[in-house]
Design brief:
The complex is a heterodimer of chains A (287) and B (239). With 287 residues, chain A is of the alpha/beta class. Chain A has two domains: 4-215, 3-Layer(aba) Sandwich (Rossmann fold); 218-286, Alpha-Beta Plaits (2-Layer Sandwich), CATH 3.30.70. Helix content of chain A is 33%, strand content 30%. Chain A has ten helices and 14 strands. Chain A has helices at 42-49, 92-102, 108-118, 131-144, 161-177, 189-192, 213-217, 227-234, 262-267, 277-286; strands at 4-13, 16-26, 31-36, 57-62, 65-66, 77-80, 149-153, 181-185, 198-203, 206-212, 221-226, 239-245, 248-253, 271-274. Chain A has a six-stranded mixed β-sheet, sandwiched between helices. In chain A, helix 3 (108-118) packs antiparallel against helix 4 (131-144). The radius of gyration of chain A is 21 Å and the shape is globular. By secondary structure, chain B is mainly alpha-helical. Chain B has nine helices and two strands, in the order H-E-H-H-H-E-H-H-H-H-H. Chain B has helices at residues 2-41, 53-67, 70-78, 83-115, 121-126, 132-159, 162-185, 189-201, 210-232; strands at residues 50-51, 118-119. The two termini of chain B are 28 Å apart. The chains are: A alpha/beta (287), B mainly alpha (239). The A-B interface holds A 47, 50-54, 70, 72-75, 77-79, 81, 83, 85-87, 98-99, 101-103 and B 3, 6, 9-10, 14, 71, 74-75, 77-82, 84, 234, 236-237, 239.
Chain lengths: 287, 239
């Protein structure tokens, strides 16, 4: 099963409302992208989801049982945090060993083979790792944990392009072999777009959107051309993220691709293009 | 239950190196004092002795308690261990550690007493009578009290905000000035009453019973562990 239900969750830090009455259901065996600007509430939501902190109100139920109850076991969830929670003096191979103790499903052989692929020296301590390799070892532990729900918070922080590609490939390979719920929180939207099935966009502590990537991208299109003509086209239409550069203007129209007025666009000499996830995200979270 | 044992195993593994370094330094120090006291005792009119290494163990365990929370708590949360299991695992590790170090202290004391003019920490307070069980229990209780106090204090600091941390740091000063104030107002009755109380609870009465102290230290350790549970139960991760 592994269904997560978040009900009316609110969290405050002093006078700042980090999460505002968030309700959400996460279905099993899907790859979710949790997207939001800095300070939107992504990490707070993930910290609550994994019992690292406690909410001011609301509840999170995992397969119907509140995760805040004392008898609840968190062992079905593995959370790769952006911050390092591992003792700096421990060697990576010792971290693998201890993770195996606490997560019996942890695949030690797979972790070591991933370490080889990434060129990670497991006999070095945590404090000897660079920013990139710190992200790599944490991502390896998460991938090899075999937890029913695996959460990655900024998994590719500090990774070069080659390592990022290995990570995405391994994530998909691991998911195909062992389907589970994966939540990825990242700012590198364009890169992760092809990996995601569903997107959750959080802005100022509120969930503003939860849709499949396919559905989301087909529910918007970009129109561009001369400023006056674009303005004419946009009249009466819902749009986000209008950008003007000299006489040129482009805007993302929030409407089904099928509903675009090709006749009017041809008359006004406008071009339609497919909207990228990142552009749409910027448009939705800027307003 | 499984996680409690694993947590205890990790806590003990984490303190293993510090314990080994502590005993290496202790043995080096003892050998040095042993050599010095034997040398001095050879000179006419000179009588030299040394002892009380258990006091060092007590300080070591207090500092260990202080250092055993933050890093371990974070690592255990990274492994999704419940706060309840972290708590009971920690206690199990501390009981084992206090027991082990109590035995080590006794073994070392017996050896040094047989070979030199050494007095154990217990012997310095309650006399030289050979009461192995009483000495073990007293050592164990003192060590458990030391480590539990350190653990509780560090949890209190971790949980507190900046202002509360400052307030906690001033608590000993506040207590001292309050006692002095009340003592002056009552013509010394407060200090006398406190003295009587400590004499009883630590067994410094005519027959010098260390069992009173064992009970006192165990009860204090249990109280410290109890307060620790209240603190850790809903402890938030601080980044």
């Amino acid at each position: 099963m592994s269904t997560i239900q978040i009900k009316e969750l609110s969290m405050r830090y002093g006078n700042t409302l980090a999460l505002d009455n968030v309700s959400l259901t996460l279905e099993p065996n899907k790859i979710y992208g949790l997207l939001g600007r800095n300070g939107a509430g992504k990490t707070t939501l993930l910290n609550l989801l994994t019992n690292k902190i406690y909410p001011h109100s609301g509840d999170i139920a995992f397969d119907g049982e509140s995760i805040f109850s004392q008898k609840h076991s968190q062992k079905k969830i593995y959370y790769m945090m952006e911050k390092n929670l591992f003792p700096l003096g421990l060697k990576i191979k010792e971290i693998f060993k201890w993770t195996k103790e606490f997560y019996p499903e942890f695949n030690l052989d797979y972790a070591n083979s991933l370490a080889n692929k990434f060129g990670l020296d497991v006999s070095k301590t945590v404090k000897e790792q660079s920013t990139g390799y710190t992200s790599i070892f944490k991502a390896i532990v998460a991938l090899a944990s075999n937890a029913r729900i695996t959460i990655f918070d900024e998994p590719v922080l500090g990774l070069d392009a080659n390592h990022r590609e290995i990570f995405y490939k391994e994530l998909l390979a691991s998911y195909n072999e062992n389907p589970r719920t994966v939540i990825i929180s990242t700012h590198l939207i364009e890169e992760v777009a092809n990996v995601l099935e569903e997107v959750i966009i959080i802005n100022a502590g509120r969930i503003i959107l939860k849709k499949s990537v396919e559905e989301l991208l087909s529910s918007a299109y970009t129109i561009s051309g001369e400023k006056e003509n674009v303005d004419k086209y946009l009249q009466g239409r819902e749009y986000v993220s209008a950008e003007t550069l000299g006489k040129f203007k482009s805007a993302i129209v929030l409407a089904d691709l099928q509903s675009r007025d090709e006749g009017l666009a041809k008359k006004l000499e406008l071009d339609f293009t497919k909207t990228e996830l990142q552009q749409l995200f910027i448009g939705l979270t800027n307003s | 239950m499984k996680d409690i044992i694993k947590v205890a195993k990790y806590f003990l593994r984490d303190s293993r190196q510090a314990v080994m370094i502590f005993y290496a330094i202790t043995i080096f120090l003892v050998l040095f004092l042993f050599y010095m006291s034997n040398g001095l005792n050879g000179q006419p009119g000179t009588e030299a002795s040394f002892g009380g290494l258990g006091f060092g163990v007590m300080i070591f365990l207090f500092v260990s308690g202080l250092n055993s929370f933050k890093t371990n708590f974070k690592f255990m949360l990274a492994n999704s261990v419940s706060r309840r299991d972290i708590y009971f695992g920690g206690i199990l590790a501390f009981v084992i550690l206090a027991g082990f170090m109590a035995i080590m202290d006794m073994v070392m004391s017996q050896f040094f007493m047989a070979t030199s003019s050494y007095q154990s920490f217990y012997g310095q307070i309650y006399g030289e009578e050979k009461r192995l069980i009483a000495e073990f229990l007293w050592n164990f209780a003192v060590f458990l009290f030391a480590v539990s106090s350190g653990w509780m204090i560090t949890m209190l600091y971790y949980k507190s905000g900046k202002l509360m941390k400052i307030f906690i740091s001033f608590i000993p000063v506040i207590i001292i000035f309050t006692v002095i104030g009340f003592n002056n107002a009552t013509d010394g009755k407060v200090v006398n009453a406190m003295w009587d109380f400590f004499v009883r609870v630590f067994g410094f009465t005519d027959n010098y019973s260390s069992y009173n102290a064992v009970l006192t230290f165990i009860l204090t350790a249990v109280t410290a562990f109890g307060l620790s549970y209240v603190l850790v139960r809903k402890m938030r991760l601080k980044e």
